[in-house]
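Hi Y.,

Following your request, here is the sequence exactly as I used it, all 263 residues.
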Amino acid sequence: RGGFMNKRTLRYKLEYTGKTFNTNSCDSCTIVNFENSSNVTVEFKDYPCKVKTTLTALRSGKLLNPMYPTCSGVGYLGVGKHVASDKKVYWLWYGMLQRVYDPPNIRLSRMYKDVEVCEEWKCFQNFAAWCYGQKFFNSKDDNGRKYHLDKDLLSSEGKVYSPNTCCFVPHEINSLVQKNHSKSENSLVGMSYKKLYNSFEASIKIFGKKVNLGSYKKPEDAFEAYKMAKEQHIKVVAEKWRGKIEDEVYDLLINYQIKNKDS
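Below is the corresponding structure, written out as tokens. Let me know if you'd prefer a different format.
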């Protein structure tokens, strides 16, 4: 029986090596090595890579090219140990790409205008490897909420998701310092115009509660009042989370300066 199996394997090897198969979801592939029906190596051409698979998967057309962009037209799984079934990192990656390249609503479309994901992170393998190398990837705040992937703190513009511009921070810090890309260059944050009094009211939210900072005749004065109060509040929040965030993030918060585009 063993001899029969070897002969059949040899026959399959001669028959299938070099044969091209179509797939249901992307480009075709060609068998470049046939060990047995359960160990077949194929090569994709349009999105180049080699993949090990089975003869059954090839015949059914269900084989997926891991280099083919299946997420928002740009993201692909890549070749490596990280798998899409690892939901805690896959959905983080998927959501990031969707917000940037396929926003589900107008609000996100405006918020993420001109934002991009670096080429390295369009490959799921690279993004997952970076996540698992971060100290606070799986951390949660006091309310059990997972830390957020933040792109604003480590970057002056907050327009790129990349290993050099992102970090994991608790929700409180993520919502504390954000870049508001929908604002015009000349607009000032932290105030509202009161037509009845022809004045500008400055206010700030501190731990979820609105605090009035006074009324001013000039918008610049209202902004300065907001800026001082917000920077002081950021320092308080930084101290609260000291030791539970990266040292670099703590240092940035302590020295953070509010700009017109910040919220």
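The two ends are 74 Å apart (CA to CA).

Thanks again,
Q.
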